[in-house]
Amino acid sequence: MLGVKFFSSMQKRYSGVFEKVAVAYNAGPGRLSRWIREYEFDDIYAFLEQIPLQETYLYVQKTRNFYDRYNVLLKYYY
Question: Which of 5, 35, 41, 69 has a Cα at 20 to 30 A from 14?
C-alpha cells in the first residue's frame, strides 16, 4: 500500500507525465529534479537516454511498454 500511495503522490506531483512519474518512483524525486536541471529536458525521449542509472532507464522502458499494452487491451475490452 505504501508503494501505491507513493506512486499516486508522484502522479500528482508530476501532473501524470508517465516518464517523470516512473523515474521519480524508481530513482526518487530528488534525483529526477537534479537530472532535469543537469540534462536537456525539452525532449522526453532524449532525456531518458541520458539517465545515468541503467536500472532506472530499463524500469521506465519496461513499465512504459506494459502501460501501453494495458491501455490497448482496456480500450479493446471496454
Answer: 69
